[in-house]
Amino acid sequence: MTDEDGPETVIRVALADDQLLVRAGFRALLAAQPDIEVVGEAADGEQALALVRERRPDVVLMDIRMPVLDGLAATRGITADPALGEVKVVMLTTFELDEYVFEAIRSGASGFLVKDTEPDELLRAVRAVVGGDALLSPGVTRRLIAEFAARSREPAPAAALAELTEREREVMALVGMGLSNQEIARRLVVSPLTAKTHVSRTMVKLGARDRAQLVVLAYESGLVRPGWLG
């Protein structure tokens, strides 16, 4: 990963999975990349928390189902710690519609990947989440969020939305519908930079950790409804 105006930036990744072979496979793939460094491994959620606090990785690939402390609890421990605010958590799941994935995103995870994802997609995801891009596996994630949102109780308008401008509400709704900054820019006939600025300001006003949480807030506030997804 290279900045246009600076030297190469190395992405520091931690692996948390109770299966040694899974960790070994991910390590081999990631360590072979010049812009990625694997800084440690954990076999359970408790070890993962300790590892993250010690090494401060940029990204944690976190299995949902682990002994001692599961991935959801470990993720909540990470996202609740202000000192770890820059750490991004990507949940690993065996099935695309894992019943815990939506809860993982609500817990502060930046997205999720299925364990049998293609190598190129895994690498793209690690780089994307560091750059603050949209949810990983967007098509699957949109269906999953729609499914869980449809099961939830009728949302009440969030008081925090009162702080948003009309344009910021519009942008938040588009983010909730799964659009990227480029797609939002085309929809609103503005530049991608302007779209990105609106997204960033909305996240700051709502205290959202990343775009994943902004999507959840869009659903929970009723700004976006499941039936709106294509």
From TrEMBL:
Pfam families in the record: GerE, Response_reg
Modified residues (4-aspartylphosphate): D63
Domain HTH luxR-type span(s) in chain numbering: 157-222
Protein name: Response regulator transcription factor
InterPro entries cross-referenced by the UniProt entry: CheY-like_superfamily, NreC/VraR/RcsB-like_REC, Sig_transdc_resp-reg_C-effctor, Sig_transdc_resp-reg_receiver, Tscrpt_reg_LuxR_C, WalR-like
Keywords: DNA-binding, Phosphoprotein, Transcription, Transcription regulation
Domain Response regulatory positions: 12-130
SMART domains membership: HTH_LUXR, REC
